[in-house]
Amino acid sequence: MPRKRELYGRRREQALLHALVADAEAGPVLMLRGDVGTGKTALLDDVAAHTLEHRPGTTVLRCAGGAPDAALPFSGLLDLLTPVLDHTDALPDFQRRALTEALGLCPPTGQTGELTVRTALRTLLAALPAPVLLVADDLPDLDPATRAALLFLARRPVPGTAVLLAARTSPEHDLPTLDLAGIDDDAARALLDARGVRGAHTAALIAAAEGNPLALTELPEPGPAPLPARLRSAFADRVRALPPQTRTLLLVAAAESRGATASVLAAARHLKLPATALATAETGGLLDVTGPALRFRHPLLRSVLYAGAPSADRARVHEALAAALTGHEALWHRALAATEPDEDLAAALERDADAIAGRGGLTAATTVLTRAAELSPDPAHGSRRFASAAHAAWKSGHPETARTLTARPDRDSPELARLEGLIAYSSGDQPGALRQLVRAAEAHAEHAPAAAAALLFMACDAAEHAGLDEELRRTALRITTLDLPPRHHAYGRLLATGPGAHHDPWAVLDAAPDELGSSRVHRWLWPLAITRDAPDPAPVRDFAERACAEIAAEGVQALLPRPLLWLADLECRTGRIAAATAHAQEALRCTRDLDQPVARADALALLARIAALHADPACRGFADEATALALPLRNRAAQAEASWARALLALARNDTAEAVEHLLTVRSTHSRIARLSAPDLALAQGAVLEAGTDGCAADPFARARAALARGEQLRRDRRAAAAREHLRDAAALFEGLGLTVWRDRARAELRAAGGTAPTPVPHLTPQEHEVARLAAQGLSNKEIGARLTMSPRTAGYHLYKVFPKLGITSRAQLRDLNL
């Protein structure tokens, strides 16, 4: 249990954190941000101790960063979840397998994706008895796979779990954040008094410490240097004053990445250090040792020790750790100890990276492959390994890392050209991405035509984003000239004719080229791209739902936002507005996780369109943000969709003049979005469409507006009886879609025509709607929980609220409703 100690000048922060944990049922999340020494760790210790004392039964899970390397995937997650590993039986089989593989608790199958591991983490926390407090200290210094999993969790709160993260700096501006400033002079004086520091120089020390509690504790006297430098200097002075053998023992502890006492002591024996060295470090107030685990009293001490040690000393310590450990950890310490190129070691690292990636550790695989490349004596092998590292970085959602790895003197290699194209596709100017992807495809065309086809497929998507129809057609037809079997050529021809070229995605999937069989991602993406604008979107929507599940299971996170957005769009066009909202929001979170501004603009534009359907003024904010992102990227598709959303909002306010203006902008910006929005332009320009007209038949929202427009026209023509029929249909359709502003407008027209509006159906939240829809398909609570990353208990709770709202008493009755 963390030790309780008095925290000077932090009563307000303590009260806020205690209240936040007390409200764990709401799933609160907070990032605690502050400079070195401001007391982040002390506050986390305090809230953990307070929770255990005042909220018995709370499960407290903790991990902390501080390792000098990042090649041990999910090591922080293992520390975090060790107390609750016996609860993994509550997970669906595929999630349990993914999580235990990632944590190294069972042999790898080579098929685990980081996204599945992150989802399993959410499901596990949801399955634990509430309340749960999750505390992660020094977030930037955790291994990247754990850090990404925790940020994924923070953006998708779990009811019953309070999440507290701490970091010196944090680029995650979308998370609730508490910035720690310095403590005031009275608190500083009380802290010094408690240390027994009094006298004439107290005022100068308080001024020099700038309210930093660590500085007040550690600085012997004021100085002219900046505060961080003085703190580092103070710790360095403490380290230099230690006996040499204790310094070496501390360096071993700093280099060992897990805080495992046994590993540190084993390496110490290889270095012939006395057994008393650890006790000296502990009694000196530098280490806390609690049985199998040890940690530095302050993370800055670990950093000072490791960074300040001569490279020869660091190499000697890593060699000792390699001798004391086994498996991946031993290999990695060998790599850190190496000072010369070594092909055998580089090849072993490359094999190890493959195994790590198969456990869902693509981020760690990037680090290992980068080190393998650095140790490669042969430049060709080094270039290939750098390209593999960049590819792993891109797939795991780290385009900046990938971009750095591709910026090498030998960048003319086909593999690095391919990576540059992929990076531009997800985060760059879209016409430029088109050119780079085509150039990379040409470099692969002769020796790897299937890889060239995959690059051309993505180039087609870049062309579609850029609104370059002729380039899209030409790029797709280039696939038909590659040295590939006829099925591949058929796919190219279908892509060339546009995203409504074929109506049946399952038939397109059955005709998939054999070359796509090895890529579960492209095997699902190609049919979806070819059929997503089919006249009847319902079967394509069902296909898209399956495709998203398959691609998520594959773990190629960089490509997940695109099918999620296609699914949300299909749901929107088939009247599943709540489901569309949920998937568009998830796509937006993914684009933030993955740093993909192109898809983020798409997600914001789609959310603007959905908000417009509800006549929600938030539409404007989404549309403006989408446009601001899309303009420099020349993402004309997102620009056009944002304009479409503004038009729909204007139509909801019955401002047809503004709607026409926006829709004419759509028509001049992007041909595909113009085609999809054509019924809205016709209605806004005064053309009354019959319900069932080709432009409206598959879209219940367009059908409802056509019925409303027809009813309004008939009422103006004094044909009240005929008007009532259309207006009733419109009101019922809007009711079913959950669009209350439009429903109320139709009802007002219906009353004006002498009709009576039906009794309203209680509104379901998006989460309730999704649970009800899946239950209507026959899924159990456990299966619903796995699909929506919630516990079976939570799924049952949602159904408990749904039944009375819908006036039903059993799951069987859900199947009779249009959900």
Explain what you see.
- Residues 757-819 form the HTH luxR-type domain.
- This is AAA family ATPase.
- InterPro entries: AAA_16 (IPR041664), P-loop_NTPase (IPR027417), Sig_transdc_resp-reg_C-effctor (IPR016032), Tscrpt_reg_LuxR_C (IPR000792), WH-like_DNA-bd_sf (IPR036388).
- The chain has 819 residues and is mainly alpha-helical.
- Among the domains are: 11-179, P-loop containing nucleotide triphosphate hydrolases (Rossmann fold, 3-Layer(aba) Sandwich); 239-337, no CATH class; 345-411; 688-752; 766-816, Winged helix-like DNA-binding domain superfamily/Winged helix DNA-binding domain (Arc Repressor Mutant, subunit A).
- It is built from 42 helices and 7 strands.
- The protein has a 5-stranded parallel β-sheet. It has a two-stranded antiparallel ribbon with strand order 6-7.
- Strand 6 (287-290) and strand 7 (293-296) form a beta hairpin.
- The protein is globular and about 100 Å long.
- It starts with 10 loop residues before the first helix and ends in a 13-residue tail after the last helix.
- Residues 688-696 have low confidence and may be disordered.
In short:
It comes from Streptomyces xanthii. By secondary structure, this protein is mainly alpha-helical.
Assigned CATH architecture of the domain at 11-179 = 3-Layer(aba) Sandwich
Please outline the major beta sheet: 5 strands, parallel
What is the spatial order of strands in the main beta sheet?
2-3-4-1-5
Q: What's the CATH H-level homologous superfamily of the domain at 11-179?
A: P-loop containing nucleotide triphosphate hydrolases
Work out the radius of gyration. 30 Å
Count the beta strands: 7
Termini Cα gap: 49 Å
What's the helix count? 42
CATH C-level of the domain at 11-179: Alpha Beta
The proportion of residues forming helix, as a percent range, comes to 55-70%
| CATH topology-level name of the domain at 11-179 | Rossmann fold
Q: Write down the overall mean pLDDT.
A: 84
What coarse outline follows from CA principal-axis ratios? globular
Share in β-strands: under 5%
Output the structural class: mainly alpha
GO molecular function: adenylate cyclase activity; ATP binding; DNA binding
Protein name: AAA family ATPase
GO cellular component, one term: cytoplasm
GO biological process, one term: regulation of DNA-templated transcription
